[in-house]
Design goal:
Number of helices: 8
Helix content: 40-55%
CATH class: Alpha Beta
Structural class: alpha+beta
Shape: rod-shaped
Order of helices and strands: EEEHHEEEEHHHHHH
Radius of gyration: 35 Å
Number of domains: 1
CATH architecture: 2-Layer Sandwich
Largest sheet: 7 strands, mixed
Strand order of the largest sheet: 2-1-3-7-6-5-4
């Protein structure tokens, strides 16, 4: 049975209910490694993972697909996770955070993906969780295709730093990969914003207000997801169980997260100013049109007066019986029109 966030209202605390997409079956992948050895395998039941922490190797257990609450609860209980941690792992609306449960640290964060629909940016998010404890790292993601393949390649490639590190460093590397995804998305949205601004300056009518608001909405949502990651890193850095060797890397990652949020704010302010810029450009173009129409109307006012005056056809109008009156009237109107054009040009209005 599929559950939504509304279905969890009124449930007791620490109730393990998955609120996301159930199209992805639960799979459990394991990497056990140290400096000299690496073993990868896939298991079908959590019970087969007993003894993972009894060796000197570091175990990375990656769970893909969160639809099987029973198996995930069994897995988490096997490694001594608190029931509230299990609830956070399955709650896809969980805000990014870091929280300690005994000697385990839970970090929740959202992956981000950028696609384009008819040229408009569309952001997609995926709830992920990282749990680090003595000799173990557990990761949970909703579907296949993650940001952690680069980390796996480093492990398979025998990179000494990650192969010899403790669980904290591996957890840092996994969260760093998620932050890197945000950096790529921010860069792409930044290019979209700059291109939109260039179009706006070149031709305001080529940009619609809804197009601006779509970009602003996506940047606002991105900031809402990225901001808590910075706070989570600050909480993680204060952990008493944090390995000193991983602390400098976390400091650096927090700096990256801070710079990320600042970049999002910069582009969001840029986009918010585009609405005023758009309205200003449209108004300027309208003013130019009104300026042209005003000059045309002003030039034709004396011509209209002359044609109206001699169009009354009273009997006692000597000009009507003049042999060359018609040509004199045309000459007068032409001279008036050309004189008006010259005057406007002399005033710099043309």
């Amino acid at each position: 049975m599929e559950h939504s966030a509304e279905d969890t209202v009124g449930l007791p605390p620490a109730t393990a209910v998955y609120t996301g997409d159930r199209d992805h079956a639960t799979r459990i992948r394991v990497m056990e490694f140290d400096v000299h050895q690496l073993e990868e395998r896939e298991v079908t039941t959590p019970a087969s993972l007993k003894g993972c922490t009894d060796t000197t190797q570091l175990s990375w257990i990656d769970v893909v697909g969160l639809s099987d609450e029973e198996s995930i609860s069994e897995l988490c209980t096997l490694f001594g996770l608190h029931a509230l941690a299990i609830e956070d792992i399955l709650n896809t609306s969980q805000r990014a955070k870091a929280e300690e449960f005994g000697d385990h640290l839970l970090v929740s964060a959202n992956r981000v993906e950028l696609t384009f629909d008819d040229g408009e940016p569309v952001l997609g998010f995926e709830h992920t969780s990282i749990v680090s404890g003595p000799g173990i790292v557990l990761t949970f993601q909703e579907r296949d295709g993650d940001a952690w393949e680069a980390v796996r390649k480093r492990i398979r490639g025998g990179m000494p730093r990650i192969r010899s590190a403790r669980a904290d460093f591996l957890a840092y590397a996994l969260l760093d990969a998620i932050v890197d995804e945000y950096a790529v998305v921010v860069e792409k949205l930044g290019r979209v914003a700059e291109q939109l601004e260039a179009r706006l300056l070149d031709d305001p009518e080529s940009v619609s207000v809804p197009e601006i608001y779509v970009l602003r909405r996506e940047l606002t949502e991105l900031r809402r997801k990225a901001w808590p990651i910075r706070d989570a890193l600050a909480t993680w850095r204060r952990s008493e169980h944090l390995d000193d060797a991983a602390r400098p890397f976390l400091n650096d990652l927090q700096d990256h997260a801070t710079a990320l949020v600042e970049s999002i704010d910069l582009y969001r302010d840029l986009v918010m100013g585009m609405v005023d810029l758009h309205m200003s450009g449209v108004n300027n173009k309208m003013n130019e049109t009104m300026h042209t129409l005003t000059i045309i109307a002003t030039l034709f006012i004396p011509l209209t007066f002359l044609t109206g005056l001699y169009g009354m056809n009273f009997d006692n109008m000597p000009e009507l019986h003049t042999r060359y009156g018609y040509y004199i009237a045309l000459f007068t109107m032409g001279t008036t029109f050309i004189g008006g054009l010259g005057w406007f040009r002399w005033k710099g209005m043309l």
